[in-house]
Structure formats: structure tokens, C-alpha cells
């Protein structure tokens, strides 16, 4: 078999199939492989007119179809299935070849695989791909990790198939060594969870407090999408809310069970943040909100608990409230991105990845699920100050948060008084207030820890660690 294919894709479910078609549409010859050969031949039969494909049925044929250095992209389920594919193909490869994992792998698995294959001279490129099946076909945001050598060979191809930002730049960047790409994709998904939760809370407030119908709320979101909240998620929210169920004639959102599912990347974001000691409370609340929504029996048993029921506002009051919700949503969104970029920065420091936060925000401007107009301003903020400690330290974002203050707080007061849950908005404001506080109750916490466990504490007036002898004369000793 001629080794004419520039890249090969194994695993031809929706994402793999569409990425293979994307490569072919952009002029590359693509070798195809799938555990079930019928799927390979079906792709060629249906989409062969889009470009040059080489259908293969065995691992050996697949590898032999690839030019050197071989670029082999895995699009299978994360975990053991990915390991199984690597074990099948790695023995057939030669030093300098590369395996690209385009699935939602845990970054620690990627680090392990990269380390193991590096010993065989094979490059392993853990690559985050965001944009769903449409993005995979028409241009996703791509977050590759791995060696610089692998990116020199693979990067131009990824840049060609990626989404393009409004300034026409490709939405792909080399994130860093080993697991950096999958780590960035993990946090992207965590921010996505938070973004969706905040939008959901805005919807519920507009419906339960302001009294708007889903169709009216759709119009409000369309208006918001023409301003600073311009984003893919706001755009599709308007579409979902305006959709009417054909079978019942009811708003679509009223016939869907209010139990949200999750695939795990949001949980990973929170778990790793805990390991790194980074507060991502907004993302965590979004993960827990989905978890709570799934406990149907617990919710049913608690539905008659005491508390207020929302009473819709009058027309003029509702319009003013909607404006306040927009302020609260935007301010909370800034906090979510602040927390996400903090986690990326901490991960970069922990694993010595040297991730460019400005470059990350730039590639999220197109193709990915959280693409939004204000990411261009985030990129500018990090480009101007690579050492920016927080997005909230940027003058422009700080001014916008300051302007949103009163409305943000009023929305939470209204939510509390009317019994409408808003954990994302609340967590974002609590995080903001904690950052600007002169003193936190952590001093008391340290005193408690020293009392029951002799864990020691530090003083504000001199260096060193200290312990108070609480059971006796309460004298202080230096630890």
C-alpha cells in the first residue's frame, strides 16, 4: 500500500468521522481505520467526493498508508479504549512518528502515555478539540500539547483545519509539553459548565421573578447577544428558548426533564483545582447544580419545605430587573473566567508547562463552545501584562465589575427573598468579596486548628510558626 496519506484517523464515530472529512476538505489525503471496517467503507462511500481518503481494514494497512513521519489520530473513548488502541498501533510505528489523542482524556493519563511512548521515540500529542460535531467538521478550537518537534510537523495541519477567529487567525496553539493541551481543554470545559449554569440562573430569574415567558426571554437573550455578552452560548440559548415542542405546542424547555447530565470534565476541573489549592467555586457550583438536578427523589421529598414562592413583577419593574440580571450575569461570567485562568496558570506552574494565557484566550475566540466576543479583551489583557495576577486586576474589567456592583447584589437579594436558587451568581459574588476583604475568618480557622490539633499558626507581627498551649496557661511557644 502506498504511504501517501498525510494523516490517519482511527475511530470513526461522529467526531472522528467529521475530523477526517475536515482534513480531506482541506486538501490532505486521509487514511481511515475503524474497529468495524463497515464504518470505514461507509464514510468513503458517502463522503468520498469531499477529498482523498484511503480506506484500510487492518492496523498494518493503516500504518503503511501513512507518510513519514506518521501522524496517527485516535478518536475513541477516553480511558482503557485509548490505551488499547495505543497498544495496538505503537509496535507498528517508528521513532519520529506521532500518535495524536483527540479525545477528552484526563491530562494525567496523557502525561503517562507521553512519557511511555517517548521512551520508544514516538511523539504522543494530547490534543483538546472543542466545538462538537459541527466544529470538528467546519473548524474547531484545538489545544495540542506534546513536544515542540511534533507541533512543527503537525501544527500547520491543525492550523489549516481549525476555526478562524474574527481577525482570521487560526484557533490553535501549542499549549505546552505532555498533558498541557488536555489540561487546557479540561478547564475550558469547566468554564463551559459555569457559563451554562449562570445562563440558566439568568433564565430562571427572568421567568420566576420577572414573569417573562420563554419566548420573551429568548428575545432578551437575542438583545444581549448584540452587546458585551455576545457569545455562542447566549446565541443558542435564545434558539432553545424560542423553540416550541411540535407534539404539545408547549415551550420546549417545559417538556424537557430538568435533570442535567455531565461527562466528567467539569468534575475533573474541580478535583484538580482542589489538588492545586485554587478556588474555582463558580465552576464547582455548576457541577454540584447538575448533580443536585439528578436527585429526583430527594427533590420530590423536599418540595414542600417552608420558604417563599416567587411572585412575578409588574411590566416596568420586570424590564428594570432584566437589566440588573444582565449586569449580574456579565459580572459573574468575568469571575468564572478569572477562576479558570487562575487554574490554568497554577497547573502551568505545577507541571512546568509555560502556558501562554493570552494565546489560550485567543484560540477560544472561535470554534469552541465558550467562544465569546469578550475573549478578545481577555487576550489583550494578558498580552499587555503576561504576569496579570487576575482578570479582576485588569483596569477595564475592574471598572465593569464596579459598575455592575449594585445590580449584581440587588439581583441576589431578589433571588433570596423570592426563593429562587442562584448558586452561580452567589458563588461569584462571594469570591469577589473574599478577594477584596481586608481580613478573612481564616485567622479564626487557624486558631481552631491549633486548639484541637496543634497545627500551629503564623502571626502578623513576626516571622515563624507558633502554637498556643491551650490546656494550661495558654502561653505561646514557637514551633
Automatic annotation (TrEMBL):
Its EC number is 1.1.1.44. The active site is at residues 185, 192. NADP(+) binds at residues 11-16, 34-36, 76-78, 104. InterPro entries: 6-PGluconate_DH-like_C_sf, 6PGD_dom2, 6PGDH_C, 6PGDH_Gnd/GntZ, 6PGDH_NADP-bd, 6PGdom_BS, NAD(P)-bd_dom_sf, Pgluconate_DH. The keyword NADP applies. GO terms for biological process: D-gluconate metabolic process; pentose-phosphate shunt. It holds the Pfam family 6PGD. Pathway: Carbohydrate degradation; pentose phosphate pathway; D-ribulose 5-phosphate from D-glucose 6-phosphate (oxidative stage): step 3/3. It comes from the Bacteria. It catalyses: 6-phospho-D-gluconate + NADP(+) = D-ribulose 5-phosphate + CO2 + NADPH. Keywords: Gluconate utilization, NADP, Oxidoreductase, Pentose shunt. Residues 181-471 form the 6-phosphogluconate dehydrogenase C-terminal domain. NCBIfam families: gnd, PRK09287.1. This is 6-phosphogluconate dehydrogenase, decarboxylating.
